[in-house]
């Protein structure tokens, strides 16, 4: 048999060898990629070098960082990477930071979350539980005895502190409460924004505002800290239950990282870490839980694009 009669067979053998080499190389590359996403015990690990966690300014920024640090340290143990905390000057700045890729995860209020979700596709993955285990909290409208304010109708003509334009319990719900009771929240009260729930309550206690809005959990925290006594405050209105604050990640994270981050939050059980952020823990969250806030915003005709 001549050489030419073997040529097709040799060509096929050469092609087969080349394919075998390529498959081996791809397998090796895949093995290295898998290994890079696993720790020494073979468990999946986060691809991020650090987790950037943003907080909305419900209280003084420095104090929020201090209070949240014990929880962040416990979260670091779960994730295996450092957790970097930051507090933006306002709610909208937190949303903007996430949309710009400056945050991986952010702790939102329910309404500010809907803004982040609807505008930038942020995804809620856990919901914060109250210290008693409830998955909801309330919005209070408060005043002091010296103002003589006893009902929502009595608020007319008085100064009022809202918290932030994107705050659920500090703006959205109080406005809705006023509207349901026949008041125009833009015209019937002299409204200003305090910037934080603590600042709103303290403005009322200090006589800088006749009445104001505050979240029930911040109210309870400041009461426990001795910032005021129950006798000093009159709760004029208590809202219907509001779903607990969600934590959301930016849409660009890998599915693997999203699952690891969610599980890390759910796995934090250390009492001191949870007490530091006044929570019993977390439960898995879905976007639909916050549709009620979208409905309220629509009923109030809020132009969310102008919220700052």
UniProtKB/TrEMBL annotation:
<dbReference type="GO" id="GO:0055085">
    <property type="term" value="P:transmembrane transport"/>
</dbReference>
<dbReference type="GO" id="GO:0043190">
    <property type="term" value="C:ATP-binding cassette (ABC) transporter complex"/>
</dbReference>
<feature type="domain" description="Solute-binding protein family 3/N-terminal">
    <location>
        <begin position="50"/>
        <end position="285"/>
    </location>
</feature>
<dbReference type="InterPro" id="IPR005770">
    <property type="entry name" value="PhnD"/>
</dbReference>
<comment type="similarity">
    <text>Belongs to the phosphate/phosphite/phosphonate binding protein family.</text>
</comment>
<dbReference type="InterPro" id="IPR001638">
    <property type="entry name" value="Solute-binding_3/MltF_N"/>
</dbReference>
<dbReference type="Pfam" id="PF12974">
    <property type="entry name" value="Phosphonate-bd"/>
</dbReference>
<protein>
    <submittedName>
        <fullName>Phosphonates-binding protein</fullName>
    </submittedName>
</protein>
<keyword id="KW-0732">Signal</keyword>
């Amino acid at each position: 048999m001549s050489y030419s009669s073997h040529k097709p067979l040799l060509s096929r053998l050469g092609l087969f060898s080349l394919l075998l080499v390529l498959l081996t190389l791809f397998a090796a590359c895949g093995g290295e990629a898998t290994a890079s996403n696993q720790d020494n015990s073979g468990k999946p690990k986060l691809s991020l070098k650090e987790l950037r966690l943003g907080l909305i300014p419900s209280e003084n920024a420095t104090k929020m960082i201090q209070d949240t640090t014990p929880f962040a340290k416990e979260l670091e143990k779960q994730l295996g990477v450092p957790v970097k905390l930051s507090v933006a000057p306002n709610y909208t700045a937190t949303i903007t930071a996430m949309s710009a890729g400056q945050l991986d995860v952010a702790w939102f209020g329910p309404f500010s979350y809907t803004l982040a979700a609807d505008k930038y596709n942020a995804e809620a993955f856990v919901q914060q539980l109250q210290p008693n285990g409830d998955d909801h909290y309330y919005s209070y409208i408060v005043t002091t005895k010296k103002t003589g304010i006893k009902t929502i109708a009595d608020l007319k003509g008085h100064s009022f502190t809202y918290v932030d334009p994107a705050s659920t319990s500090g703006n959205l719900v109080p406005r809705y409460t006023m509207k349901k009771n026949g008041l125009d929240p833009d015209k019937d009260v002299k409204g200003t924004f305090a910037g934080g729930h603590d600042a709103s309550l303290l403005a009322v206690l200090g006589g800088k505002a006749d009445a104001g809005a505050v979240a029930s959990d911040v109210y309870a925290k400041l009461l426990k800290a001795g910032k005021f006594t129950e006798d000093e405050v009159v709760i004029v209105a208590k809202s219907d239950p509001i779903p607990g604050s969600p934590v959301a990640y930016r849409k660009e994270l890998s599915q693997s990282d999203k699952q690891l981050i969610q599980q890390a939050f759910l796995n934090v059980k250390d009492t001191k870490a949870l007490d530091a952020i006044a929570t019993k823990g977390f439960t898995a969250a879905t976007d639909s839980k916050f549709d009620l806030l979208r409905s309220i915003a629509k009923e109030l005709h809020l132009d969310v694009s102008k919220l700052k």
